[in-house]
């Protein structure tokens, strides 16, 4: 007993006075939104790590998913109204032939806010994308259906089909368009990674320890009083038949991620920005890493995992990725390097963007960028989707976007 107490005291003493964390920040946020560790960071980290580890163990022991039930009970479309305000699904992936496909539908209780889009890249034909697809015919009230696209859940967590028919623009030559018909199927036998239960206690503890304690209290109270945001991801395969202006193209064996989320309110204006990396490696593994910066709560929230060939998921527990060093002012970089830790092993990630498509959503208040890229995970090659999203309001507030360099130069 006393030996454990001594170990605890020595550990706390080291963290407080001798570790690199002792260089702590008392200056407030940097770049408007981002916080660095404060004086109580080490103690808060220990508290949050123990808290999230305990809660996660209880949820997994009792096989509790969310207050809405199990994931397989919630994979299909939800009834939208006072309780649930949004219901969204997203598919995206690529294969060894260099074919890419991306399909998104976001249903809202206000059907005028429902939206979606489709991206397609076929070697020898080009990189094509739709404009933002809307729901002018009120089709999304009960199903994942917009004016030109729809998705159907056939078997929960195992099989979805999706369709699109309409004009797509060649991104590299926006004056040129073509008529495209897509009939696709996503299938999976992999595990689900549920954000509400499968988080990394280390990453969550780091994120919450940066904030004031009342941020944690407000998050718990808000979650208990309202319907929580439910989010999960799952790796699978896409096969599709695509008709491009009369030419039929078979898309086969695409490694693809399905992103599924629903909740009471989807208010993107509360988020300064986020970035999500989805890496599909040549050895059959998939690595997902996401970083979110909120204006009102967590200035840095990380989560991520590796999905192995056997369908099992392993958490990312640490990363040196810094959002404010990467595309902070709305200019997405072409190259990105960072390090992650999985199962006590460090891995290097190198990414080089090849194509991208911007979308304006939420009544033009939000801008989103879907990037296609090549990547290296250590020495393993692969391909990568990167989704960047920014609040246009917060972009207008950044110092670099507001500074008048010309007037400064004229004074010299």
Question: Secondary-structure element order, as H and E?
Answer: HHEEEEEEEEEEHHEEEEEEEEEEHHH
Q: Rg to the nearest angstrom? A: 22 Å
Which overall shape is indicated by the principal axes computed on the Cα atoms? globular
Structural class: alpha+beta
Q: What are the segments in which pLDDT stays under 50 over at least 5 consecutive residues?
A: none
Q: State mean pLDDT (0 to 100 scale).
A: 90
The level of helicity is 10-25%
- The count of helical stretches stands at 7
The number of domains: 1
Whole-Å distance between the termini?
A: 70 Å
Beta-strand content bin = over 45%
Biggest pleated sheet: 8 strands, antiparallel, barrel
Tally the beta strands: 20
Walkthrough of the structure:
The chain is of the alpha+beta class and 412 residues long. The chain has one domain. The protein is built from seven helices and 20 strands. The chain has helices at residues 2-17, 41-61, 201-209, 213-225, 392-395, 399-402, 405-410; strands at residues 86-94, 100-108, 115-122, 126-129, 133-134, 144-145, 149-155, 159-170, 173-187, 192-194, 230-244, 247-263, 271-281, 286-294, 301-307, 313-319, 335-342, 345-361, 366-377, 380-391. The strands form two sheets. Strands 1-2-3-4-8-9-11-12 form an eight-stranded antiparallel β-barrel. Strands 13-14-15-16-17-18-19-20 form an eight-stranded antiparallel barrel. A hairpin with a 2-residue loop joins β11 and β12. α2 packs antiparallel against α3. It is globular. The protein starts with a helix and ends with a helix.
